[in-house]
Amino acid sequence: MPYLHSVKTFIKALLLLVICSVSYANQTFTVTDLAGRDVTFSSQPERIILGDSRYLHALSILDQEDPTKNVAAMLSRLDWVDYGSYVEYLKRFPNLKDIPIIGRSSADSFSIESAIDLRADLAIFSLDGHGPNARHANTIKILEKAGIKVIFVDFRKSPLENTPKSIALLGKVLGKEAKAQTFLNFYEAQLSKVTDKIKSLDANAPAKVFIHSRVGVKSGCCETMARGMMASFFDAAGAHNISKAVVPGIAGFMDLEYLLTNQPDLYVATAVGSKGMPKESKDDELPYVMLGAGTPNDFAEKSLYDSIKRYKLNHLEAVKSGRAHALWHGFYNSPLNVVAVQVAAKWLYPKHFSDLDPEATLEHFFNEFQAIPLTGVYWTTLSSDEYK
Amino acid sequence: MKNNQKSTLLAGDIPLPVLLSILACLLVLLVGVAVGVGAVTISQPVVWSVIASKLSIYSIEPFWSLGRENIIWSVRFPRTLLAAMVGCALAVVGAALQSVTRNPLADPHLLGVSSGAAFGAVIALLHTGMILGAMTVPIFAFIGALSSILLVLAVANFSSAYDAGRLVLAGVAISFVLSSLGSLFIFMGDHRSSHTVIFWMLGGFGLAQWDQLGILFIALIIGISYLVYKARYLNVMTLGDESASTFGVPVVRFRLAVIIICALLTGAAVAFSGIIGFVGLMVPHIVRILVGADYRKVLPLSALLGAIFLVAADIIARTLIPPEDMPIGIITGLIGGAAFIFLMRKKQMLPQ
């Protein structure tokens, strides 16, 4: 009889062990990040470090209620890199101003010891760009030794290819897979509106584009993007980026003389400013092109005009013929990038894409996938007669 | 000799072993402070208890958090040791080069080593990617440093160069060439990533790793042992090549040996910390002002003072604008320059 009791006890213990193992196995999951690293989680992360404050847009997709609630710290102050969005987030989530900033945009400024002391359990870094990236093996090693999991996402290097992968990865890691899938369906549908139609275009005569990047940040003419980032959107929309022939890397500089002798059909400035930002104007001349949250169209258009004048780009045929545009710089490192592709397609081939409605896409994006409302314009065209 | 002693601040007052002991204690004290301060302040009992338990000096029940332990052992302690070792290496190299080139302004970067290292780092940071993992930048920087010294020796046609001046000029020329090539490769790379290169060039110890320290430590032991062993030769070399030959020093061979040792030491230091100026120039001069020009004293004291100086500079770099680290090169330049001017005003720099 005591023998039977022992057997029963043993079976109970065994069952308990199996149940515990199964529940642990259910909790434990492994993901492959955008750097091809396998990362295993034993539980859902609760204290997150953002390698770029602008990743709040990505977190918003997964949690519209409060994307800031699990953010333990971040790099690069949002009010420096995206002032308009910062103002909007701050209105809804006043705790944003209390989130510690543990570094600027460069990887070298990242404070590893602050990250450890904040008891973070996840760091979301960019494959390439602001903050530590996949090349900073030492940083990753130290963080992981301290129990902070590191995953790499990418909205910048190969944005159209990696945005869906990045959102799917974040959805899996943060336990928001259903929401991530809803977004991915929307994203793919909106992207295919351009990519499917591009195939029927005459590939022999693509429209030539010049992307004038971060207008106003550098005094000389003209910083540009040749590959990846913003350039990807115009590639997807069937453009011929004239910078590719000159700039060897991802980004670089184009000479004004080269621009004047190799005229683009389309001039696109990227806007790093927003209305209301500190040092907004000097002698009534706007230092940057202004777009994004809280920026009205007339203000955006004036800023584009001022910049074109300052850089002596008014001699470009694209400017004279009303094909000078500006695009919110934040698109280059954001899951909103599909909107930029639609805008690019519309600018490049207006007849071909007459039925495309990027405004509606942007509106839907903010209504369904963002924690802040849509305020302001995210692109503009130098259309008013007084500016031509 | 008496005359020389009178013209120093400490010579004759404090015996060398006592002076070395005082500086060693000061260094240990500073290491404790360095590990305790930063973005997060950690008390000294915790600092030394963690270090003691990790080194198995004595067993202790942890009264600290795992986070603090990680900050101390994985981040700050290796960083502080790296600062001490780099300071030690650069100061000793500066002292040795000032002797063999008979140039009071000689420093570890004189012979193009830092330009070569920077060129290697630019290639790694902007063009190759991390093909060798975490060691990519140090390896490329070290190869760049060694390549530059080989170029300098080739240009100076060292085997027949009896005067040090030719060597220095070759170093300056190669430095300019490699700096320009480095700039060209920065221009050809993604200019948005160039801040990483600039940060590296300004120097820092932020990513020190235990497995890297061993390499530098071995280089340091070999290099300093050789130089201390040949301290008598270094003393004689300051008198000029002819006098040194008269005293039985194989001038050309010895100068070549010292330069190669110095290049290896500087290359190893620069590879892990980036380019840190002023330590190798300033520390040996301060030591000479304190104890005279005898290299049997100058070398060990330079080693300790260099370590103390860089650990102190690193403390400032980490506490000035927390939670960020200011590049160490900025601190060494500011403090070093100011201290140097102050000492020069207080006391005329000793002739070699």
Automatic annotation (TrEMBL), chain A:
<dbReference type="InterPro" id="IPR050902">
    <property type="entry name" value="ABC_Transporter_SBP"/>
</dbReference>
<feature type="signal peptide">
    <location>
        <begin position="1"/>
        <end position="25"/>
    </location>
</feature>
<dbReference type="InterPro" id="IPR002491">
    <property type="entry name" value="ABC_transptr_periplasmic_BD"/>
</dbReference>
<feature type="domain" description="Fe/B12 periplasmic-binding">
    <location>
        <begin position="47"/>
        <end position="356"/>
    </location>
</feature>
<protein>
    <submittedName>
        <fullName>ABC transporter substrate-binding protein</fullName>
    </submittedName>
</protein>
<dbReference type="Pfam" id="PF01497">
    <property type="entry name" value="Peripla_BP_2"/>
</dbReference>
<keyword id="KW-0732">Signal</keyword>
Automatic annotation (TrEMBL), chain B:
<dbReference type="InterPro" id="IPR000522">
    <property type="entry name" value="ABC_transptr_permease_BtuC"/>
</dbReference>
<feature type="transmembrane region" description="Helical">
    <location>
        <begin position="326"/>
        <end position="344"/>
    </location>
</feature>
<feature type="transmembrane region" description="Helical">
    <location>
        <begin position="139"/>
        <end position="161"/>
    </location>
</feature>
<feature type="transmembrane region" description="Helical">
    <location>
        <begin position="167"/>
        <end position="187"/>
    </location>
</feature>
<keyword id="KW-1003">Cell membrane</keyword>
<comment type="similarity">
    <text>Belongs to the binding-protein-dependent transport system permease family. FecCD subfamily.</text>
</comment>
<dbReference type="InterPro" id="IPR037294">
    <property type="entry name" value="ABC_BtuC-like"/>
</dbReference>
<keyword id="KW-1133">Transmembrane helix</keyword>
<feature type="transmembrane region" description="Helical">
    <location>
        <begin position="109"/>
        <end position="132"/>
    </location>
</feature>
<keyword id="KW-0813">Transport</keyword>
<keyword id="KW-0472">Membrane</keyword>
<feature type="transmembrane region" description="Helical">
    <location>
        <begin position="256"/>
        <end position="286"/>
    </location>
</feature>
<dbReference type="Pfam" id="PF01032">
    <property type="entry name" value="FecCD"/>
</dbReference>
<feature type="transmembrane region" description="Helical">
    <location>
        <begin position="199"/>
        <end position="229"/>
    </location>
</feature>
<feature type="transmembrane region" description="Helical">
    <location>
        <begin position="79"/>
        <end position="97"/>
    </location>
</feature>
<protein>
    <submittedName>
        <fullName>Iron ABC transporter permease</fullName>
    </submittedName>
</protein>
<feature type="transmembrane region" description="Helical">
    <location>
        <begin position="16"/>
        <end position="40"/>
    </location>
</feature>
<keyword id="KW-0812">Transmembrane</keyword>
<feature type="transmembrane region" description="Helical">
    <location>
        <begin position="298"/>
        <end position="320"/>
    </location>
</feature>
